[in-house]
Specification:
The structure is a homodimer.
Chain A: H1 18-42, H2 45-52, H3 59-62, H4 66-88, H5 95-112, H6 114-126, H7 128-151, H8 161-181, H9 188-201
Chain A binds a DNA duplex through helix 1 and helix 3.
Amino acid sequence: MDTGTPAAADTNKQPRTERGRRTLRKLLDAAAVEFGERGFHDASISGITARAGTALGSFYTYFDSKEAIFQALVRDMSEAVKVAAREALAEPASALERERAALTAFLRFAAEHKEVYRIIDEAEFVDPESYRQHYETTGARILDRLREGARKGELRADLEEAHAWAIMGMNVFLGLRYAVWGEGDLPAERVAAIAGDLLAKGIAVDR
Amino acid sequence: MDTGTPAAADTNKQPRTERGRRTLRKLLDAAAVEFGERGFHDASISGITARAGTALGSFYTYFDSKEAIFQALVRDMSEAVKVAAREALAEPASALERERAALTAFLRFAAEHKEVYRIIDEAEFVDPESYRQHYETTGARILDRLREGARKGELRADLEEAHAWAIMGMNVFLGLRYAVWGEGDLPAERVAAIAGDLLAKGIAVDR
DNA sequence: AGGAAACTTGAAACCTGGTTCATGTTTCAA
DNA sequence: TTGAAACATGAACCAGGTTTCAAGTTTCCT
């Protein structure tokens, strides 16, 4: 889960040294594994530092508390999801194609990084503000794409926020079922095709 | 949140007396409030017993642990959601109408019982087995309705589990955004109408 | 009425794990 | 080279909450 620069957590704890940056990164990576495997409460700081190969006390050089590192992690990961999606949307395509591609990318990402899924979900309880922000910005990005599609005359002109949230919910639950829980019973492309088809035509009989 | 008989948690702790059943119910109701307000970890047993108006020690007459009462609660609530949905589906209607009615009911229920929403969501981390079961059975019920609609020639014949999960995800996220977070910026009927329309026709321009 | 089982009580034992801190080591700019 | 700031270390501290328990009280069946 290395996204490069750790998301700006501007406490008074920013490392000022190369060594410091390395340790911070090690802690963040270790925390991703620890929180992903055990969940916020069963996770322990000593578990994190043990995985990171640092001393317990070092933790507090970089973070004020267990909550603080969790928050840094959520923001880091929210960013990583965003980046993965942006990459999938690189080449131009029709609006519907783009939604399908975005979902395929999301499903692949979720299968590859199940811990991200879990940690962002758990943020609903541990760090509600970041959770809300994650889904609000994600929803806003989807809505932008829908509006763009409408502008090009490919999508209906009356699409609004609720449509974006509907699509987002669809994606998240398909991710949970087929990427996180599923053992590949349905491949990402297949799931994305079904959802794309639903978006294209609805579920009613063809008219 | 009184669903009648507390869901069968067949430990060796079933009450054998009327008084016992009353206390058990009080604890369950108090726990719903406590967990809903503070989340699993910030919630405390003494907070629950205080709200219930019983002694701390009495808790252990009925439940083995904090996890145990949480699990009982999740199952109780999963049942309550199911019941609320069933009631909304009482009178017959077209398949698409039924989905819209189910969503309306769900949104109303979620707005009315935000704590249910939160507790079931938190079960993903506190009691994963119950969480999974809740969504698997809910998904299965949706799929049943879709198949019934297909049988009647109202819905496409190729609908499968993934469609049901897509719809479920849509519903859950719309519930989160508009029932739990929203302050009535969009009323339940309006949200359900948008989602119903999406299911009926998709988001592409009309052909 | 009588007594056994069910239930209640709340003080205190007990644990767990987050956080602090005093001491030592490494980095890096001058 | 040098010294001040940054960083590392882990034992010990400590708060808070779960769980236990021994001593009552209430229920309910016969």
